[in-house]
Amino acid sequence: MIINNKILNVDDYYYGVFMTISESLTGFTLNELQSTGLAEIYYSYILNHIELATFIEFLNISKNSIENSQTQEELTHVISAKILSAPSTQGIAQSVITLWYLGTWEGVYVNDLSYKEGLVWNVMHAHPPGAKQPGFKSWNLKPVNSNS
């Protein structure tokens, strides 16, 4: 598989690795992750909140996993076997998933936007209460996947 380089205006090879592994860890496309407006913020936040060597190790293992995988299925297997199962990378991988889905790092919201743009709202076909309104007369529409 190919690592996405030169994403947006960030000229950092590891940022491309971070976005590519985030895509596989979350199940959301690169465009969906970028549309949150938080990609660069999350990358910088992690860089400033964990030891650099730990993050670089995670990114190097991720890079090798991506480059050695021919298909998405193979990459998914490698992520499960090498990243989510290894004690050295398991915690950070889980934290990255939580960061994208809930907007929190170690239980703390990264910023106001991270709550609003959490991927969990897309998965639930909902909106974040108190942050994004569902729209005029939305109460009149049946929920997605409604059996009623």
Compact description:
With 148 residues, the protein is mainly α.
Could you characterize the architecture of this molecule?
The protein is an all-alpha fold and 148 residues long. The protein has one domain. It is built from eight helices and two strands. A hairpin with a 2-residue loop joins strand 1 and strand 2. Helix 1 crosses helix 4 and helix 4 packs across helix 6. The longest helix has 16 residues. The relative contact order is 0.13. The model has no long low-confidence stretch (mean pLDDT 87).
Notable traits:
8 helices, 148 residues, two-stranded antiparallel sheet, 3% strand, Membrane bound FAD containing D-sorbitol dehydrogenase, mainly alpha
Overall pLDDT confidence: 87
What's the number of extended β-strand segments? Answer: 2
Distance between the termini: 43 Å
Largest beta sheet, briefly? 2 strands, antiparallel
Give, in order, the helices and strands.
HHHHHHEEHH
The Rg value, from CA coordinates, equals: 17 Å
Number of domains: 1
Q: How are the strands of the biggest sheet laid out side by side?
A: 1-2
Strand percentage:
under 5%
Catalogue the unreliable spans. Answer: none
The percent range for helix content is 55-70%
Principal-axes geometry comes out as: globular
Structural class: mainly alpha
Tell me the number of helical segments per DSSP (H or I, 4 or more residues long): 8
Organism: Chryseobacterium turcicum
Protein name: Membrane bound FAD containing D-sorbitol dehydrogenase
